């Protein structure tokens, strides 16, 4: 399995709106969605969003999404992971 890129990151923070403002103003990301208290921001690439910020008691990295070269690579990775 060969990971080719980082598709996005999910953060948790006590103040999602404040953190979102930082990424909008300093990094130039654009707000594309807000679901309840969660905020989703996009960059200039093809991904719907590259950063999701969710409410939580402390600032943490909640998760991340990795990309593979193409659909065949995704299918091969799924088969490899399922066999473990």
Key terms:
84 residues, alpha+beta, 2,3-Dihydroxybiphenyl 1,2-Dioxygenase, domain 1, five-stranded mixed beta sheet, 26% helix, 39% strand
What does the model show?
The protein has 84 residues and is of the alpha+beta class. The chain has one domain: 2,3-Dihydroxybiphenyl 1,2-Dioxygenase, domain 1. Helix content is 26%, strand content 39%. It contains two helices and five strands. Strands 2-3-4-1-5 form a five-stranded mixed sheet, with helices on one face. The longest helix is centred in the C-terminal third of the chain and has 12 residues, at 71-82. The protein is elongated, with a radius of gyration of 15 Å. The two termini are 13 Å apart. The mean pLDDT is 96.
Q: How are the strands of the largest sheet arranged? A: 2-3-4-1-5
Instruction: Give the low-confidence spans.
Output: none
Compressed to H and E, one letter per element, the order equals: EHEEEEH
Structural class by secondary-structure content: alpha+beta
Quick take:
By secondary structure, the protein is of the alpha+beta class. The protein has helices at 16-25, 71-82; strands spanning 5-13, 30-35, 38-42, 51-55, 60-67. The relative contact order is 0.30.
């Amino acid at each position: 399995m060969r990971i080719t890129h980082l598709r996005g990151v999910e953060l948790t923070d006590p103040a999602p709106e404040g953190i979102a403002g930082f990424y909008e103003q300093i990094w130039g990301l654009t707000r594309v969605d807000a679901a309840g208290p969660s905020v989703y921001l996009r960059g200039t690439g093809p991904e719907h969003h590259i950063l999701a910020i969710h409410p939580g008691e402390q600032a943490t990295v909640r998760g991340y999404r990795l990309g593979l070269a193409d659909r065949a690579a995704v299918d091969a990775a799924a088969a490899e992971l399922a066999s473990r």
